[in-house]
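We treat protein structure as text, and this decision shapes the records that our systems exchange. The tokens are whole numbers drawn from a learned vocabulary of local backbone shapes. One such record is reproduced below, unchanged from the form in which we store it:
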Amino acid sequence: MLQPGGSRTGGPGIHATAHSSASARPPAHRRLGLVLPVAILIASLVGFSAAPAAASSTAEQAMADRVMYLMNRDRKARGLVPLRRWSRLNTVAMDRASSMATSNSLSHDAAGGDVGTALDRDGIQWYGFGEIIGSTNVPWGTEAATYIYKLWKSSSYHAGVMFSRSYNYVGVGFVHRSSDDTTWASIVFTDSRDHTRPIAKNGRLSRSGRTVTFSWSGHDRKLQRRTAGLKSFDVQMRRDNGSWRTIRDNTTSTRLTLRHRKHGHSFWFRVQSQDRRGNLSAWTKPVRVWVP
């Protein structure tokens, strides 16, 4: 079964399911039917409903980490850029997995309906979105996560979502239903604006007499698409235990030289980078030079 997907740029918005059957969501103007061969056998859940158990956050994290590792490993093998996990999408994916577990139904409608509506409700910006969902009675934990991932990967349609060039961010959600020991999963993908922090790095800090030279570097973290690109740096200095002050603001330089520093003082430096969307890196760890 196929359900409509979403895109605000004319590209595909795909949804997919992994289990004993599968579904995916192509662009809204296409509605096709698809049933995949039975992948696993599970006990019938018809007529039986129970709330999902509160699962260990450590287990959920390990499962999400496992799927992210496998998916990004396989993306790299295909020459693609790894997807970046987004905590706000994790929340959406967890909510959708929980809804399926509660209703005991594996479908995008049971997960909460249209993903775009959920993203809009939570104030999450997107140009396109996708979702893959799954369930298994393989024992809860990374074994279940790995098994569901293999189901998705074995389906060309689902692999097409995971290995798409259309997305840059992802959220992963796993929920355990203890009443029948089943695992429910949702992965939500978006094509969104770059909101990932760039990187700033200290370079060399040296002194010659009373002249101090400091260098630095940085880069913007690459996304599959919409990487903003590095714009500039801010450099701060403090003397001894004084306050930090900005000595270079929005500079594109990667080196400075300060002459005639006062004798008998320590000079500390740190740097921060900014990308073209205004995302700021963390400040680098302060480095120190002594002027005797």
